[in-house]
Design brief:
Number of strands: 21
Strand content: 25-35%
Structural class: alpha+beta
Helix content: 25-40%
Shape: globular
Largest sheet: 10 strands, mixed
Number of helices: 9
Length: 476
């Protein structure tokens, strides 16, 4: 059963909590996975459809709360749509159940999904670690799942870690138990309700520097062993940034720890996995003896951008990828606001106009530009949205909106939006409604309602061009 688009999942099953154990093999670049998922079946059905890609599912079964157990009669993976269909020989009634899956996969070298990252250690030896990059649609390469941002659930993760290596995931470690083959089963606390693309895990020879932020949050910067001291600048200033964001958002960062992890092979600049942010090494590590002074600003821009996502994207998540711009635009704007607060001498807003706004105008003047809010369906289309329109034009429009309604009104509306949609999903229109309501509540005399103003900017390609003519006479 497919939706009309062919890529979207049916809405007849909702995951509640994933329990997943992953056993990576860094010698053979493969992994084994065992998963059981607590699900809610919303209507009688005889097949369950979820996402998987490049995984070999060997066992799948279902157990209902009344002890009814069913093995699948057929397992089919459609490689074109990344949909895994589990068929059963009888109709399953609505209600709660547990889906159990055993599968294997490859630690690929494509820098997406669950992949291997190659590097040279401080002794000149070639080494590998296993890490993840799931945005936008690659969690399905590590575990069968409902890989859409609106289908949130909790996650219990266990990593089987070889002796001498470290395991990291979104939450703190709750237990470590020896298993066969000189390995350790590292079990992590249950995550908050969140989207699959924000799940993360890393296994490798890593070390960290750490500090405790106000409020008790554990903050760490991880790198391959021998490079951890290069994380001091990012560590010290992420603690300062966290204090500022806790105050600005009016909601304290909700996880007990925040890890910043430098990954040797990493395609994006960074990724906002909740509580386990991953980065390119050059976007996180600063060498006081060899790095250029400008590297400090680049590190702070990226760190602040990703930290802003902890609220705007992770706590409250877009319903679908056509609102990706809202995640990225807000993080770009909020990241610069945070850096400007910490380092006012850097003149971040002057740089914002010269870099972000001008970059947006340049791209938006082309015939092949796209609206800020673009309709997407195919995963390949989603990847095309990570551009200056989503980041820079969107950020410029948000800065314009803050100026239009006033900074305090904007912030009050943002507080209402975050509180109303925490641990859930929202659309851009929900934010405009919250800011407009805050303006009305505070007596701001808006000439144009926020929703009407923003719809005009985000749904059209290009920007208005104003032309003026000056008429002069001899008497003037």
């Amino acid at each position: 059963m497919n939706t009309a688009s062919g890529f979207r999942l049916p809405s007849n099953v909702r995951p509640i909590r994933y329990h997943v154990t992953l056993d990576p093999d860094l010698d053979n670049f493969s992994f084994r996975g065992q998963e059981w998922v607590e699900i809610d079946i919303l209507e009688p059905l005889s097949e369950i459809v979820l996402n998987a890609a490049e995984l070999e599912v060997s066992v799948a079964s279902l157990e209902r709360s009344d002890s009814m157990q069913l093995a699948t009669s057929h397992i089919d993976l459609d490689e074109d749509t990344d949909q895994l269909t589990l068929r059963f020989s009888q109709t399953i009634p609505a209600g709660n159940a547990v889906l159990r899956l055993d599968y294997t996969g490859t630690l690929n070298d494509q820098l997406r999904g669950f992949y291997r990252s190659r590097y040279t250690d401080i002794d000149g030896n070639e080494r590998f670690l296993a890490t993840t990059q799931f945005e936008a649609t690659d969690a399905r390469r590590a575990l069968p799942c409902w890989d859409e941002p609106s289908i949130k659930a909790e996650f219990d993760v266990t990593l089987i870690v070889p002796s001498g290596l470290v395991g990291i995931s979104n939450m703190p470690i709750v237990s470590e138990e020896p298993v066969s083959g000189d390995r350790t089963a590292v079990r992590f606390e249950t995550t908050p309700t969140m989207s699959t693309y924000l799940l993360a895990f890393v296994v490798g020879d890593l070390a960290c520097v750490e500090a405790q932020a106000a409020g008790g949050t554990q903050v760490r910067v991880w790198a391959t062993r021998g490079k951890e001291q290069l994380g001091r600048f990012a560590l010290d200033n992420s603690v300062r940034a966290l204090a500022y964001m806790n105050d600005y958002f009016g909601i304290a960062y909700p996880l007990p720890k925040m890890d910043h992890i430098a990954v040797p092979d990493f395609a994006a600049g960074a990724m906002e996995n909740w509580g386990a942010i991953t980065y390119r090494e050059t976007a996180l590590l600063y060498d006081p003896d060899n790095s250029a002074a400008q590297v400090k600003q680049r590190i702070m821009e990226v760190v602040a951008h990703e930290m802003a996502h902890m609220w705007f994207g992770d706590l409250v998540t877009m319903e679908w990828w056509d609102d990706l711009w809202l995640n990225e635009s807000f993080a770009s704007w909020m990241g610069d606001k945070t850096v400007d607060h910490l380092f006012p001498e850097w003149q971040m807003w002057t740089q914002f106009v010269s870099h972000d706004t001008n970059a947006a105008l340049g791209l938006d003047g082309l015939r092949n530009s796209h609206p800020i809010e673009a309709v997407v369906d195919d995963p390949a289309e989603i990847r095309e949205l990570f551009d200056a329109i989503s980041y820079s034009k969107g950020g410029s429009v948000l800065r314009m909106l803050e100026d239009y309604v006033g900074p305090e009104t904007f912030r009050a509306g943002l507080h209402d939006y975050l509180r109303e949609h925490a641990y859930a999903n929202a659309r851009g229109s929900h934010l405009w409604d919250a800011i407009n309501a805050a303006a009305l509540r505070e007596g701001s005399g808006l000439g144009i309602p926020v929703n009407e103003l923003m719809e005009a900017w985000i749904k059209q390609v290009g920007y208005p061009v104003v032309k003026a003519d000056v008429a002069r006479s001899e008497s003037t």
